[in-house]
Amino acid sequence: MVATLLGLKQYMGSRFDNRGNRMVVTSILAEPNVILEKEESKVTLGFGRRKKAKKTDNAYVKVAGFAPRFIKEAKLKNGDDQADSGLAAGSKVTVSIFALGDLLKVTGITKGRGFAGGVKRWGFAGGPKTHGQSDRHRAIGSIGQTTTPGRVFKGKKMPGHMGVSKLTVTNLEVVEVDEATNSLLVKGSIPGARGGFLILEKTGKAKGYTPPPEEKKKDDEETAATEDTEKKTATKESAETKAGGTENHQESVEPEIAKEEENAKN
């Protein structure tokens, strides 16, 4: 069972849940992914199209008919054997693998921030603001040790290039799935700019999720309305028949009572 899909970030907006609470959502465009290659425990997915194909993409062009823009391997999860049997090279995977209430793990590339200082990049507090400190407000301070070790350790948090790094966000709930437009809405924010490449992986189901009631179709509503009208007419007819029966019974009983009263007087 394929639980991974490749897509692009579209935009961010807001929606209201069943209780009327406003929530932030992110729209993702996930056009059908082509399975380029299948192995026992993984598949190779292709997404998007390149304008020009390279010689190294000839194998993918034979399968998909075009050179994919993004290529990524995805692990297969235990699922239905029938669904796995349909996963052949050249078949497509769509957003239908996701449903409302699913939890996703989304991986993307963060926005580039250029060269940033220690305060912006790592959240340093900076130096003192008073006592004659004129140029220490956003400085990082000392970076080295004493004679031992006499050097700066690798990985020291210092000013440098910020952003354009891989970031994964977990436990994002699927709010809406639209198979017609190959898009879905996810609750929460996702790293990257508009049009950024994303990897979507289903990890489970949201706890306490209750699906919304299904919308009634027009045909069902019309049939329900006709049934209600038929029931109302039937109840009216039964009430009228009962009322007519009681009146006839009273008319038949009144002459008998009058005869009995005359006989008693005689």
Q: Could you explain how this protein is built, in words?
A:
- It is a single chain.
- This protein has 266 residues and is α+β, with helices and mostly antiparallel strands.
- It has two domains: 4-122 and 157-205, Elongation Factor Tu (Ef-tu), domain 3; 214-266.
- The protein contains four helices and twelve strands; from the N terminus they run ββββαβαβββαββββα.
- The chain has helices spanning 58-64, 81-85, 118-122, 218-265, and strands at residues 4-16, 22-29, 33-38, 42-47, 70-75, 92-93, 102-109, 114-116, 160-162, 166-178, 183-187, 197-205.
- Strands 1-2-11-10-7-12 form a six-stranded antiparallel beta barrel. A four-stranded antiparallel beta sheet has the order 5-4-3-6, covered by helices on one side. Strands 8-9 form a two-stranded antiparallel sheet.
- β3 and β4 form a beta hairpin.
- The chain starts with a strand and ends with a helix.
Features:
alpha+beta, 2 domains, 6-stranded antiparallel beta barrel, 4-stranded antiparallel sheet, 12 strands
Furnish the topology, listing elements before pairings.
Elements: E1 4-16, E2 22-29, E3 33-38, E4 42-47, H1 58-64, E5 70-75, H2 81-85, E6 92-93, E7 102-109, E8 114-116, H3 118-122, E9 160-162, E10 166-178, E11 183-187, E12 197-205, H4 218-265
Antiparallel strand pairs: 1-2, 1-12, 2-11, 3-4, 3-6, 4-5, 7-10, 7-12, 8-9, 10-11
